[in-house]
Amino acid sequence: MTRRELKPVNYIAYGLNDILGAGSMAVISGWILFFYTTFCGLSAVEAASIFAIARILDAVASPLIGHISDGLGNTRLGRRFGRRRVFLLFSIPLLPSFALMWVSGQHYLYYLVTYVFFELIYAAVIIPYETLAAEMTDDYKKKAKLAGARILTGQMSAILAGILPSWIVSSVGGKESASTFLIMGIIFAALFMVVVFIVWLFTWEREQTGVSEDALAQERKGSVADTFKVLYTNLTSTLKIRAFRLHLGMYLGGYISQDVFNAVFTYFVVFAIGGTVVIASEMMAVTYIAQLAAVAVAIPLVMRFGPAPTYRVAISLYIVAIVALVLMYVMSGEFNLLWLAVGVIIAGLGRGALNYIPWNTYNYMADVDQIVTAQRREGSFAGVMTFIRKATQALAVMSVGIILEMGGFISGADAQSDQAISTIVIMLAVGPIIVLLLGFYVSTFFKLSKETHEVLMAEIAHLKTGATSPTSEQNKHIVEDLSGFKYDELWGRNNVGRFSPSVIKPGVRDAFNEK
């Protein structure tokens, strides 16, 4: 099959979507809890419950979107607009829902509905989008460049998320208010619509070949119960891939630590060290600027030394920064702009690499899965990734809200008790460092690199010829380590991603076995 050549405009267009992906998550993790408890009259627990309810609904919606996108190419709609990209196109007019989340003075139900609705639209864009790098190319370096373009753009949008409140406060009279966040929401909603259209315009999908698509088409002829049975069999089977399990451990270590840090940071600046919302906004922007620089450095480092060693260096930097910020509070107990700036810069250098590396390695997970299943299941992996990302972020922010209230935090108060401030400082330090150390440990087992990926793709090509034995003993060990399966169990000689005989028709099941 002939592949289209990736041009600079394609890399740029692909990367732009992370204005939605990382930009919206940066705004939500950094500001939404503070907005709810400061300007909307919600308690910390009420605000946290919004995230919990949204995740319960998302547990069904996100995996379902990924599953549907894997098989949508067999429909007239999918053939016309693309099985992945059709979701992008139809989501564009719904993206202004992001601005509705930032209207103050409403009831709890309003904030619940607006948050859940945007999260569903977000999933409808991000899950299909996350398959596009693997759809557009099989080349390791090109996938790395696509991941780099995505994360670089995401960091730029995160800078905007950090600095916008400060700019808006300055332009409307120098006092932060609920309107600050509404204006920010409107600006981002407009950006989201533009960039998603550009992504749709300048990306493409691979030709659909093989038996798996036919099987998926016949699956959808069954009952709704059968469809969900197939869906969750397919999704849970992704966790049988060893490289993907390790990848998730590294991903969660890097991202949960940032979710907790972001949710607590504004409280830390305002209440623990006597700063303001404007200063917190500016420091968040400084962090994201450092992250942007770190991503640019991490791309060649990952190519040269591999993702896991670079990941461990990034974790070390981030832990040093967190310790420095806590020491500022413990040693002086007052605001020190220089110390704060140095701390967030070091944090940003670590965080930038932690953002890039998981999304770089994610682009190769469908390749590892292919040698196990002989299928391309990018949509299933994207569904699992997006669900886990949003679920863990919500869990982190929800936990911050609950712990804040248990620690004596009073919503809307200009000052907090010593107990509440101590709770804030402890959360800033302990939560992120624990998950960072877990990610560090998991990374010591992760062996995917440029060299091992080349072996993986060579073995896939070898198996496509009908071979059943490895090209060498060394290559056998490499693919077994990545996949978690013995070589004689690869290429569909297993039950990974297989469906119940009661769900798949005999003819389709036979076709899978032949493949």
TrEMBL record:
Lineage: superkingdom: Bacteria
Keywords carried by this UniProt record: Membrane, Transmembrane, Transmembrane helix
Transmembrane in keyword set: yes
GO molecular function, one term: symporter activity
GO cellular component: plasma membrane
Biological-process GO terms, alphabetical: carbohydrate transport
PROSITE patterns attached to this UniProt entry: MFS
InterPro entries per record: MFS_2, MFS_dom, MFS_trans_sf
A Pfam family this chain is assigned to: MFS_2
Domain Major facilitator superfamily (MFS) profile: from-to ranges: 10-447
Residue spans crossing the bilayer: 12-36, 42-65, 86-103, 109-129, 149-169, 181-202, 260-279, 285-303, 310-331, 337-357, 394-413, 419-442
Family: Belongs to the sodium:galactoside symporter (TC 2.A.2) family.
Name of the protein described by the UniProt record: Major facilitator transporter
Originating organism: Alteromonas australica
